[in-house]
TrEMBL record:
Keywords: Cytoplasm, Disulfide bond, Electron transport, Redox-active center, Transport. Signal peptide: none annotated. GO terms for molecular function: glutathione disulfide oxidoreductase activity. CDD domains: GRX_GRXb_1_3_like. PANTHER family: GLUTAREDOXIN 2, GLUTAREDOXIN-1-RELATED. GO terms for cellular component: cytoplasm. This is Glutaredoxin. Belongs to the glutaredoxin family. The lineage of its organism: Bacteria, Pseudomonadati, Pseudomonadota, Gammaproteobacteria, Oceanospirillales. Residues 4-63 form the Glutaredoxin domain.
Length: 84
């Protein structure tokens, strides 16, 4: 299974939803809290081109935010990406 990284903030409801989806699929992920590590916010913005959280990567593929993650789940793309 591919490595999954999610940039998030603790109070963000979209981050919570995205993490719940991944947990329901029993996907291990690395969470980077951009409030605790402000330098990671700059890294996230540079790599994604976006300023909002969550920002999610599966392997080297940038999924996007929460809505993008759920869309990938609905189309089956998420399972394909997770499988590598």
């Amino acid at each position: 299974m591919q490595n999954v990284v999610i940039y998030s903030k603790s109070w963000c409801p979209f981050c919570v939803q995205a993490k719940r989806l991944l947990q329901s699929k029993k996907v291990d992920f690395t969470e980077i809290d951009v409030e605790r590590e402000p330098a990671k916010m700059q890294e996230m913005m540079k790599n994604s081109g976006r300023r909002t959280v969550p920002q999610i990567w599966v392997g080297e593929t940038h999924i996007g935010g929460c809505d993008d993650l759920f869309a990938a789940e609905q189309t089956g793309q998420l399972n394909q990406l997770l499988a590598g």
